[in-house]
Specification:
CATH topology of the largest domain: Nucleotidyltransferase, domain 5
Strand order of the largest sheet: 5-4-1-6-7
CATH architecture of the largest domain: 2-Layer Sandwich
Strand content: 15-25%
CATH superfamily of the largest domain: Ribonuclease H-like superfamily/Ribonuclease H
Radius of gyration: 35 Å
Helix content: 25-40%
Low-confidence stretches: 1-16
Mean pLDDT: 86
Structural class: alpha+beta
Length: about 375
């Protein structure tokens, strides 16, 4: 009967054991563990353990895995030259493939170019805002909620005074002109502070399409700013650092609402209002001061009379005796079918005029594609 050894046969002399096995042998031997105990725990022959302990005593380092040669090795000098002059990874790959018979893939070249490029870190200068000098506004999308029997999208309007970090928050259902101006007006009334400069995003409720580098403003937005004596200064396109305070505020709000669900619009507004009161009443992380205490420094004078919020536009009455305003439909008298009428969009209602005579008045619909069939009077 042939007996089997309880140990595995000794590994060939030229075979390299795994790196983690080599490190384990060195660690346990340094802790005073016997050679046979190390072999028993690792399931290898004691001779293998002794051989590697002899190598360790002679100052041998951990075994290194042999790296196979790369297809890029013959072309590294050329890739370095082309990367230094600003060539893209794809153009370098095309040249290697067509002129130098490179047989590798594009991803290999792209990884090599990425390692060679030196990216300078972006450096920003921290701006210190004077009291009352600026206010930043922005919208950020929140969760969908139930409103009037429908599942609707919601946004949060946020206006921040950067010096005091005082903010005003309001949940809205759209970003149209009357809604946008109404939010700003309520923020000014809540704070009592009129900034010298107003920094919104490039939303269509404030800024028209760029023309020859200029940014013409919507008529109602320009009139609103003139009424309050505020200079509009929209942020540059894709440059969130122009309104960093409100962008940071959007992130703080979303972090506060993360993981929470809201059944109705009122529940969401209550949560947002609670967040506003909390951040305005506690010391700010950068200034160390309470925004409510610094708000008085933002006030420059008395607020003027409220601006009459309205959006005027001209529409043609459809053949079904409805006029389409902001993607919703409102009924008008049948005699006006095919005629042009003037519509005034207020914050909460729609008013239709024919030859300066009011002919219909409807509550403003909050969604899209809704139809108001009421007589409108």
């Amino acid at each position: 009967m042939k007996l089997r050894s309880r140990h595995r046969p000794t590994a060939p002399e030229g075979k390299v054991i795994r790196l983690e096995l080599f490190e384990t042998i060195r660690l346990w031997h340094g802790q005073g563990m016997a050679t046979r105990e190390i072999a028993r725990r690792l399931g290898i022959c004691p001779k293998t353990v002794r051989r590697h302990l002899d190598k360790i005593d002679r100052g041998a380092k951990a075994p290194q895995r042999a790296t196979p040669p790369s297809k890029l090795d013959p072309f590294l000098d050329r890739i370095t030259e082309l990367t230094a002059v600003g060539r893209t990874a794809w153009s370098i790959y095309e040249e290697l493939r067509t002129d130098l018979a490179f047989t590798g893939c594009y991803d290999t070249v792209k990884r090599a170019v990425r390692r060679l490029r030196h990216h300078e870190p972006k450096v920003y200068e921290r701006l210190e805002h004077l009291p009352g000098a600026e206010a930043q506004v922005d919208f950020t999308e929140l969760a969908r909620v139930d409103h009037q029997g429908r599942r609707v999208r919601t946004w949060c309007f946020q206006m921040i005074w950067p010096h005091s970090r005082w903010r005003y928050l309001e949940v809205v259902l759209d970003q149209t002109g009357p809604t946008f101006l109404g939010c700003i007006q309520r923020a000014l009334q809540a704070s009592g502070a009129i900034p010298q400069r107003l920094v919104p995003d490039n939303l269509t409720s404030a800024v028209l399409r760029r023309q020859m580098g200029l940014r013409p403003y919507q008529r109602d937005f320009a009139a609103f700013c003139a009424h309050y004596g505020v200079a509009p200064a929209p942020a540059r396109v894709r440059t969130p650092t122009d309104k960093a305070s409100v962008e940071r505020g959007n992130g703080t709000l979303k972090k506060h609402l993360r993981g929470r669900t809201f059944a109705t619009l009122a529940d969401l507004q209550a949560a947002v209002t609670g967040h506003q009161r909390s951040v305005n009443a506690r010391p700010h992380s950068q200034t160390g001061k309470v925004p409510n205490d610094l708000l008085a420094l933002e006030r420059r004078g008395q607020l003027p009379e409220p601006y009459p919020l309205a959006l005027w536009s001209e529409h043609r009455v459809r053949s079904d005796c409805h006029v389409q305003v902001l993607r919703n439909f409102y009924s008008v008298p049948y005699r006006l079918a095919g005629k042009k009428v003037v519509v005034r969009v207020d914050d909460d209602r729609i008013v239709v005029f024919d030859d300066f005579v009011e002919i219909a008045r409807h509550p403003r619909c909050s969604g899209r594609g809704e139809t108001d069939l009421s007589p409108g009077k």
